[in-house]
Specification:
The structure is a homodimer.
Chain A lengths: L7 H29 L6 H38 L9 H41 L4 H35 L3 H42 L11 H39 L1 H24 L9 H27 L6 H7 L8 H27 L4 H9 L4 H33 L4 H16 L2 H24 L4 H50 L5 H8 L5 H42 L12 H34 L1 H37 L9 H44 L8 H24 L28
Keywords (chains A, B): Cell membrane, Hydrogen ion transport, Ion transport, Magnesium, Membrane, Translocase, Transmembrane, Transmembrane helix, Transport
Membrane topology (chains A, B): Multi-pass membrane protein
Organism (chains A, B): Luedemannella helvata
Chain lengths: 780, 780
């Protein structure tokens, strides 16, 4: 293959993309200044916010320390894995891939860290603003603009990173980008899992003792877990989510660029950058036009207005860009690459329709998720009604709502993929690129979506700070409650969209996987490559069915481990909070202060410990399947993980969201209202939903990406050691066995920790090792 | 292809198989006589048992009426679908396929009905025996022998049906067997779903009002739902389960025979009959050696002894049969059929190892399920411990146990499939046959397994009858409680084994599907068939990924619908029981008798209504995917359904079983014992688990088989209307659209029924239509 170059206007466009990415970062800086310049409320508020800030930073620092080890190991392994089909030098590309792995991981970490640092400051300012006149509009603006910062960082750094790689590595950019995407996804997955465990351990633990046993309200300062709960909102919902969305952005872009090169050549490395460049511009518009009008029923109206407007602008601008940039008819060399002349429309319309499919998909998921989780709609109403027959029926109703809603989301996503597929006509390669372009279409809305999502935890935390400080009047409290409710829905929507990007990106990456197999087989001297690949990827082959079953199994295991981790850590929190109530009787009449720091410490330590097993599973399971069962089984493995993962992720997110809002429904006075048995039943449903929606569910998105990228990275090695002169069954099976053993050891070790934890400083021991009085039954 | 004949010893073997099948039926008759000749207890007991019998028969009669419509429609459609590659006349084979569809459905219905009829009589006799001296051994024997009847019916009718088809249709037997298997699976699925809804609606409804609100024990005659609950045990756990296991038996046999012909020719139509013939013999041994010794800790010890002994005997006899019957080396015509000479072992050892894999798989699943659901083991202990922090943590702990246990079962099943796959060496066809043979190996244990499983509901019901009649002393009650606990574990084990047969049969049927595609493509005039099929089945094709996603989605939707149906029907039961307590105040002091029949009526009607939507979904979803997205997407659809279905089925069965036993653990005195908040928490967990383990979970097994067989049946039509002269996109898409519309309409209609139901005779209306007093909150 001849070397690929970037010339003339193509070079200019990539430079423009990089510059606009920097502009977005500039806007982020400006917004930071604006947010920080607002009022910081009362001394009480500042003290509480300070404690939250401190806990959050301590957690993040510790998490980065843990992850640094993983990053170092990954860099080394990454450098050892073979690469194929390069224009430039192998060593240079390998170094680039490792380097940009670090950059991807660093960006992911930075966005999470910076977003969280700003959020902990914005919480306070939102709470302060709610006290003032016109507080509703002001508070909403601060919260949304803080989200805007994270949004700009996400799109800015994602686009900048990808543009730089394309500028520097040109034809070898796809290989280097695999490193970039992998770094982003790996870090994001760890931050999602760790943050998710922290936030829900604290939340569940706080609720179980506070609301259920002691009958004190949420965010009551007498609850020792309350600061940890607020820290959790920041480390889980802010830092974890921001990293996750950055990862979605980066990986989708990577998939589009890899396939772009394979289909459109040099132009295919440029057009996928033009689409998100337009997305950056519309994100800027979206964030700045989001203003709550006094006539708006609630904040969601303002946010939806911004979302749909910026989506529409994106669609129009992308269409114009495609018409100007892409050729009307298929050039001969493109047709040759695609291997088919049976193409329904020209390049312009492939691009336009695909991108519009992505944008429409985002809107459809937004509507669908809203239907299944909004308080006024039938599903949540039904769950609320089932509280009349007790907690068991609430749990069952939520589970069936979740299962069904997952199906509708899967149908919508499936329709999107199938629509893009049809654009490819006779060329599977073009179909895959169309799927990837639909992904970039979805990305044009990411700026606003991140802003929407970050909005949630900030409002939640602002409410916490206001509540704990006691320095807020009724009107201010109402404002914050309203914002918090809006935040619940936006959070659910973001999760739906994130999983949609996972499916699109993962589907597209399949194309890269297949072409990597082809190249590697050629290198290994295989002659009848077409037949070989077809046999490898035949879904009816029992070996591949086993792979598929394993892929689905990993999703179940990962979810089970994450939920289990929350149960265990929450148990530890419960015993600690109970201990404090028992040993410091002055807490209840407010003459003694709980030791908040202890609970923060427990959550921090447990989250670090518990994230290792699911993390190892995500990285090593594809290694075990690929080296052990072969490249074909690995492909089916990925397919199984995508299928089961999509449904599981939406199921967990939506049943959790629906339970949360069913609780709010009862709290607003339905079916007996606060304090009734119905309320108790919905609180139980909500608690079950906590790790569903905030730990296991959202982590499945980066999980799928990590497994896809690991597979892509190891594919050449798997083929090399399976076929031809370098075939080495012993080595292959050996690697697989080691991977399996490490996973098994991690699972066994994590199982050895008992579910119910000891109290005080005695965390390591099983309850049976010590005083059994701690195991007193809950007081109903 | 030359016509296939059965000659000489082959003919003899098939006749012997048929005769031995009849012998099994004779044993069934003898056991029936033996069971019915035992004592029938007190008048009180007889009255109660009579009411249960009556309710169960009424339900089954109504169910068969509903299903008759489905059967008629299916027969007509079956006759219209094209067939390919026949030795004999097309019309004869089509008539045979339709006829044996009716036979399969009839056998399935008969086994369910007869098993249930006998069970309702055996319940009474077990309860009566428990009152006598030596009651423990006697009661156990009656219960297990009744199970034995169902076991003999299952293996006898399954083997007899298959042997007759082979005798009559010879080379065309595979096509006719598709009808036989489909009939069995379709009926079984409906009986599983309908029975599952009935039993859990009654159970959950009874518990919610009785245990939770009125604080009266289970099976208390003052509870209006208590007869319905006992009827449910018979229609769900007995009739539904028996039909399901017959279906597993029949479909596995069908898959083995189809592939047997394709690989070993005429011998391949005989050997898969020899293996279950041996199974029949060992089942007879197993049932008759099961005798509780006074030294046995509990009934499970006796059952396990019988299971492992008959499994070992099977393995030895099958090995001898293979060595005698199959050639040592590969005959030339077999090698030609297999398309490869790279085969690791000869036919004898392929057969022996594959069958042993199946037997070992059954034992492994038995052990694994036992670990995750037995009271003494860590997982159930952990769930019990989590009851100290309330119902939410119980639910979470059970869910994570279920998710993880599903993974281990999937690993074991996957290992079995992979082991069988390796036997095939270079021939995928041989690999598939090995998988099917592993399935027949698993089948050799089915006789004992059915006996084990039926044992559960009989003991449960005997306890109910004894409890309600009041005519039992403490020792007798203890005996029945012990038997009931054993029944819980055997039920969970059976579900695990049933899903394993689903995976093996479905994997094997993939081979038939692929070869059906090949034949159909040849008929349609396609020349480059190999490449065409490979492209069709390539898992990396986005179209196929969409199919896979839809397959996984159907499993989620089906589960959600089933759980939802139970919630809705249980709500109706709750309101009816509450109404009776309110309107007949004499019930509580036993001066008035509740109207048991009303609750039975509600459950009967609701079960019929609610089973239609999941039933239509199972039959029509593959039709929509196949005709709409093509044969390739349909294959991936099946793969996705197998992957997600296996995990979902085990997850639902095991978390349900674990919750049930965690409740028993607390009831036995742990963590506060009966009446404590911990007990309340585990009761909630158990209630959540009820529709998991007895409605949604077990129905997934026949669901997978139904979808597989529908796909196999429509494959020729899909190909015919896609490729070549008969290609007709309009017709294809039209059929798909109609299928989608019917599914959508069914889902919408079933949604229109509100969750909480009205009381009394007012069942059809929403609660909002009437007196709101019925919607009183639960009394905590």
């Amino acid at each position: 293959m001849s070397e690929l170059t970037l010339e003339g206007s193509n070079l200019t466009y990539v430079v423009i993309a990089a510059v606009i990415a920097l502009v977005a970062l500039g806007f982020a800086g400006a917004l930071v200044k604006a947010v920080l310049s607002t009022g910081t409320g009362t001394k009480n508020m500042q003290e509480i916010a300070g404690a939250v800030q401190e806990g959050a930073s301590a957690y993040l620092f510790r998490q980065f320390k843990t992850l640094a080890i993983f990053v170092v190991i990954a860099v080394v392994l990454l450098f050892l894995l073979p690469v194929h089909d390069l224009d430039g030098s192998e060593t240079a590309v390998k170094i680039g891939r490792s380097l940009f792995f670090i950059v991807g991981a660093g960006f992911s970490a930075f966005i999470g860290g910076a977003g969280m640092a700003l959020a902990t400051r914005a919480n306070l300012r939102v709470a302060a603003a709610a006290r003032e006149d016109g507080g509703r509009e002001k508070a909403m603006q601060i919260a949304f603009r803080t989200g805007g910062v994270v949004g700009f960082l996400t799109v800015g750094l994602g686009l900048f990173g990808a543009a730089v790689v394309v500028l520097v590595y040109k034809g070898d950019a796809p290989t280097v980008l695999e490193g970039f995407g992998f770094g982003a996804a790996l870090l994001a997955m760890f931050m999602r899992v760790g943050g998710g465990i922290f936030t829900k351990a604290a939340d569940v633990g706080a609720d179980l003792v506070g609301k259920v046993e002691q009958n004190i309200p949420e965010d009551d300062p007498r609850n020792a877990a309350t600061i940890a709960d607020n820290v959790g909102d920041n480390v889980g919902d802010c830092a974890g989510m921001a990293a996750d969305l950055f990862e979605s952005y980066a990986v989708t872009l990577v998939a589009a660029l890899i396939l772009g090169k394979a289909t459109f050549g040099a132009d295919g490395l440029v057009f996928p950058l033009i689409v998100p460049t337009i997305g950056v511009l519309t994100a800027i518009i979206g964030v700045f036009i989001t203003r709550l009008r006094p006539s708006d029923r609630n904040g969601l109206v303002a946010i939806n207005r911004a979302f749909y407007l910026s989506a529409a602008i994106s669609a129009v601008l992308v269409a114009i860009a495609a018409l100007l940039y892409l050729p009307k008819e298929w050039p001969a060399d493109w047709l040759q690459r695609l291997g088919s002349t049976d193409l329904p429309v020209g390049p312009q319309w492939v691009a336009i329709i695909a991108v519009v499919i992505g944008i429409v998909l985002a809107a459809a998921i937004q509507a669908l998720t809203g239907y299944f989780t909004e308080t006024e709609k039938r599903p949540v109403q039904d769950i609320g009604k089932s509280s009349l027959t007790g907690p068991a029926t609430v749990v069952l109703a939520g589970i069936s709502v979740g299962l069904e809603s997952a199906v509708y989301s899967a149908l919508v996503i499936g329709a999107g993929v199938f629509g893009a597929y049809l654009l490819g006509g006779g060329s599977v390669l073009l179909s895959l690129f169309a799927v990837a372009l639909a992904g970039t279409g979805l990305l044009t809305t990411v700026g606003v979506i991140v802003a929407m999502d970050t909005f949630g935890p900030i409002s939640d935390n602002a409410q916490g700070i206001a509540e704990m400080s006691g320095d807020i009047d009724e009107r201010g409290a109402r404002t914050l409650t309203e914002l918090d409710a809006v935040g619940n829905t936006t959070k659910a929507i973001t999760k739906g969209i994130a999983i949609a990007t996972a499916v699109l990106a993962a589907t597209a990456l399949f194309g890269s996987y297949t072409s990597s197999l082809t190249t590697s087989l050629a290198d290994a001297g295989e002659t009848n490559i077409g037949a070989y690949v077809s046999d490898l990827l035949n879904v009816a082959n029992p070996r591949n069915l086993v792979g598929l079953l394993l892929g689905a199994a990993v999703v179940f295991l990962f979810s089970g481990l994450a939920i289990n981790a929350v149960s265990r850590s929450a148990g530890a929190v419960v015993f600690e909070v109970r201990r404090q109530f028992r040993e410091f009787p002055g807490i209840m009449d407010r003459t003694q202060r709980p030791e908040y720091g202890k609970v923060v410490d427990i959550c921090t330590r447990d989250a670090q410990r518990e994230l290792i097993t699911p993390g190892l599973l995500a990285v090593l399971a594809p290694v075990a399947v690929g080296f052990g069962l072969g490249a074909g089984a690995l492909a089916s493995y990925l397919a199984g993980a995508i299928g089961a993962g999509t449904l599981m992720a939406v199921f967990l997110a939506n049943s959790g969201g629906a339970w949360d809002n069913a609780k709010k429904l009862v709290e607003d006075g339905s079916y007996g209202g606060k304090g009734s048995p119905s309320h108790a039943a919905t609180v139980i449903g909500d608690t079950v939903g906590d790790p569903f929606k905030d730990t296991a569910g959202p982590a499945i998105n980066p999980l799928i990406k990590v497994m896809n990228l690991v597979s892509l990275l190891i594919a050449p090695a798997v083929v090399m050691w399976s076929v031809g002169d370098d075939a080495n069954t012993g080595l292959r099976v050996g690697i697989a066995v080691v991977a399996v053993l490490i996973i098994a050891a991690a699972v066994v070790v994590s199982k050895r920790r008992p579910i119910a934890m000891a109290d005080g400083d005695d965390q390591g021991k099983a309850p049976s090792d010590q005083d059994d009085d701690d195991l007193e039954p809950v007081k109903a």
